[in-house]
Amino acid sequence: MSQVPSPRESAGLAVPVSSYYQRHIFFCLNERKSGEEACANHRAQQAFERCKSQVKAAGLAGPGQVRVNKAGCLDRCAAGPVAVVYPEAVWYSYVDEQDIDEIVESHLKNGQVVERLLAPPHLGR
Ligand code: FES
């Protein structure tokens, strides 16, 4: 695991001291009526709900801390199901609740990227 600089830090910019949330995670919950592959086919809703409940249980939810949000297609379908954490812009491909719990404990709580769950960088739609 490693501490990842935010895009602003990487660009040599000061990190804003008044960022409303320290970290913001978005889960793709997209489903396709045509039956094509989409994150919703891989328990994305359950993962989102698990993340939300774990963040709340850990006392991490709220301004200055962590926000867990739904998203539509993030155009990384081939790596799905996916979630992305900002401000670090770290993309995860997860499988089960244990993966979500690890993202919450390691990244959202302690700022340590879970490298084993990183989405392959070349996979897009
Ligand atoms: S369906 Fe989830 S990233 Fe496109």
Short overview:
The chain contains three helices and four strands.
Characteristics:
125 residues; Glutaredoxin; 4 strands; 25% helix; globular; binds FE2/S2 (inorganic) cluster
CATH-level-2 architecture:
3-Layer(aba) Sandwich
Tell how many strands the DSSP assignment holds.
4
Question: Shape, please?
Answer: globular
User: What's the CATH H-level homologous superfamily?
Assistant: Glutaredoxin
- How many domains? 1
Radius of gyration: 14 Å
Structure write-up:
The chain has 125 residues and is an alpha+beta fold. The chain has a single domain (19-117), classed as Glutaredoxin (3-Layer(aba) Sandwich). The chain has 3 helices and 4 strands, in the order αβαβββα. The protein has helices at 7-10, 44-57, 97-109, and strands spanning 23-28, 66-71, 82-86, 90-93. The protein has a 4-stranded mixed beta sheet with strand order 2-1-3-4, covered by helices on one side. Strand 1 (23-28), helix 2 and strand 2 form a beta-alpha-beta unit. Helix 2 (44-57) crosses helix 3. The radius of gyration is 14 Å and the shape is globular. The model has no long low-confidence stretch (mean pLDDT 91). The structure holds FE2/S2 (inorganic) cluster. FE2/S2 (inorganic) cluster binds at residues 28, 30, 38-39, 73-77, 80, 82. FE2/S2 (inorganic) cluster is lined by residues 28, 30, 38-39, 73-77, 80, 82.
